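Bit of a strange request maybe. I'm writing a small parser for structure token strings and I need a real example to test against, not something I typed by hand. Could someone generate the tokens for this chain?
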Amino acid sequence: MDWIDYFFIYARYEKRFSSHTITAYEMDIEQYVAFLSSKKKKIKNATHKDIRSWIINELEAGKSPRTVNRKISTLKALYKFLLKDNYISVNPIDKVITPKQKGKTLPVFLSESEMNNLLDFDQNIFPDTFEGKRDRAIIELFYATGIRLSELANIRRKDIDFYSQTVKVLGKRNKERIIPWSKNLNPALQEYVSSYENEFGTFEQESLFFVTTKGKDIYVKLIYRIVKKYLDMVSTVKKRSPHVIRHTFATHLLNNGADLIAIKEILGHSSLAATQIYTHISVEKLKKTYKQAHPRA
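Reply from user aminoacidic:
Good idea to test on real output. This should exercise your parser:
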């Protein structure tokens, strides 16, 4: 193994980064290595000027400052590891200034009526097939629990507890949490389990809960496509992804009186600051209502 293999072992097992983060790191480093190769440079002898040149290249290619800053965070982790293990003697990224970002945009979310239109059984949006029942269960589970895409993709049959109406998920930094759901989710999950057993036989406790139509383990890109397909049917919001349903879940809870700290725990946020963005959404909603209703607004 070379030093880059050791870096990913360090990131995965010592830092305990999620599989989603590891995948992003791999892509960022691959792109950075390709850029340096075009300049006949290697990571270990790259200078801060090379990193700045890469940043400019990324911005000129249309990448947003937020995306570029995420890539810079990857390089910071990489070079910190290289310095710690004496692969380099000077950290070139210390002299790099990150691009300024615009003010944070509010998360995109769907209205309650849009979600009701999607999930109402009378609408018959989901086909009466294994695929349709699986897709409904995926969408309903996202909306009922607010879990992340990577968390849903890794749920196993044993993690779903119909008796207590809870699901166990493995979040960022391998932190487990138990999330409750309401009785409204039961029919979708139970119909999916029955359909699974009709198609593939016994549902083993260690099996991934969601599978492809061929019974293979489901994968992140497929889940993303499923969510986008159905959100396209009911909403015109620009972003139509699993994370939008997560934002929708949190926003609807807050708008209906849920405690912010409880929302933080359900979402698996490490700090309340990350959850407070949803209070800004509520304020924006109040402002909009005020402007529409007040005679002198």
